[in-house]
Amino acid sequence: MVNRKELNPDSSPEAAFGARLRSAREEQGWTQDDLGTRMGFSGRHISGVETANKPPTRRLAVSADTALGTGDVFERAWRELRHGVLLEGFTEYVSYEARAAEIRLFESGLIPGPLQTRGYAQALADAYVRRGVITREQAEERVSLLMERQAALVRPMPPVVIAVLDESCIRRPIGGPEVMASQMARLVEFAEEPNAVLQLAPYSIGENRPFDRLVNLLTLHDRSVVSYVESQTQGHLDRELASVLPLVRAYHQLQAEAMSQAASVAMINEVGKGTP
Fold first, then answer.
1. Domain coordinates in residue numbering, the chain
2. Which of 20, 46, 83, 146 suits a disulfide with 32, CB 3.0-4.6 Å?
3. pTM
């Protein structure tokens, strides 16, 4: 143990992966050679991954899950690592979202992820590739993860999902007419679900719109509330009641200013048909 290197999982995503791997290995009482043999890698390679000197691969992550009996923990961690363009706090937010009792969404300019069709999500990912922000592989992973995120909301006791969308979300063309027509149909379908509420915040509310960027609020089964706020370059997850409560109040004010669900669906149908 003299040469045991202390790990700092907060220093990078690779370091977090390595620290998790070491922890899981030591829980089994295995050496790096023991784990390497079970995974088909050398003990030196396992050491390199644990100390963040070697990047983990998908094959290594899947092998770790198999050897350690961790389901898909390491494969998901690898995906998150490869998905490094995601903003800080987002992956943790998604883990909360998957078990929330109530989800409140606000978005401006884009349909929120849980309500996006695959075609809409793919068009956004493709645009990131064209701009050189992410690779083609990362784009496919991004869409795949979004579909997994949506699937996690389909369960025997589904969460109540309340979505207030700025009018710009339905008027901004993404992916062409066919993609938008399908996306508008998906919103109407969502509004018909028994656990869903859909409202539009029309341009006419002007300065009374309390939010200028994505704001998501989750009510967990213990009635605690988690907020996630996102800008172009930063994401922030918050569980502190003192800072979350003002967002909850503002969301209620937003709902009061927004259109009714019936009026919102009527506008969505008009936009879907190309009516101004």
1. 13-82, 90-115+158-272
2. 46
3. 0.72
